[in-house]
Amino acid sequence: MGDPRPEKIAIVAEVQEKFSHAEAVILTEYRGLDVTDMAVLRTAMKQAGGEYKVYKNTLVRVAAKELNLEIEELLVGPTAIAFTGTRPDGSSGDPVSIAKALTNFAKDHEDLIIKGGILDGALLSTDEITALSKIAPREELLARLAGGIAAPLREFASLLNAIPQNFAYALSALIEAGGAGTETDEAAEAVSDDEAPSDEADEADSDEESAENNKIDGDANENEES
């Protein structure tokens, strides 16, 4: 048996490279699709951020075997493989988008059969690919995540804005009610009342002083008469 031809070696290397670097790989059978259908499908895949390639099963088997990928049972019939790639705008495609593009196309073209695939090294069944296609695209999930983060931040910002307003309102109400010094002022007034002599105390002290003066004057008169 002679050495493989260089073009076959190049195709095996290409398949290996795509299997190794693509986030998701989906294998399909395209028997019954004409050239126009294939062109439409390739365009849909490109818009979804994927690439749709037709390879001979024998060469795919060689590439898969060297990568220890157990996809032998999927390599039956004419096989075309979808790989995640890049969109026309340069952004990266994702597994959900290419799964959605394939399943949507298959709804209108029964000749396209989704056989299975690989996601991050794990094998996917046809049902799992269908389930994957029903997940929201990455952009929508990111938008939801951003919205979920933004909502608490907006609430927190509103709370921060409300704190000074509520504090000012509470301070104003406190001042109108007499302020924090009300109890202190009342205590000071009570102390002043206790320390200040009453009018009755003043009168009693005055009477005592008059009586004492009268006594002194009386004693002095007695001494003079003696």
Average pLDDT works out at 77
β-sheet strand percentage: 5-15%
Radius of gyration: 48 Å
Report the end-to-end length measured between terminal Cα atoms: 169 Å
Give me the CATH superfamily of the largest domain: Ribosomal protein L10, N-terminal RNA-binding domain
Strand order of the largest sheet: 2-3-1-4-5
Spell out the helices and strands N to C: HEHEHEHEEHHHH
Low-pLDDT regions: 179-184, 190-198, 220-226
Q: What fold name stands as the CATH topology of the largest domain?
A: Alpha-Beta Plaits
Per CATH, the class of the largest domain reads: Alpha Beta
Q: Which structural class should the secondary elements be placed in?
A: alpha+beta
Helix count equals 8
What count of domains describes the coordinates?
A: 2
How many strands appear in the DSSP assignment? 5
Proportion in helices: 55-70%
Q: What characterizes the major β-sheet?
A: 5 strands, antiparallel
> What is the second-level CATH architecture of the largest domain?
2-Layer Sandwich
Could you say which overall geometry the principal axes of the C-alpha atoms support? globular
Write up this protein:
- It is a single chain.
- With 226 residues, this protein is an alpha+beta fold.
- It folds into 2 domains: 6-135, Ribosomal protein L10, N-terminal RNA-binding domain (Alpha-Beta Plaits), CATH 3.30.70.1730; 149-225.
- Helix content is 62%, strand content 12%.
- It has a 5-stranded antiparallel sheet with strand order 2-3-1-4-5, sandwiched between helices.
- The radius of gyration is 48 Å and the shape is globular.
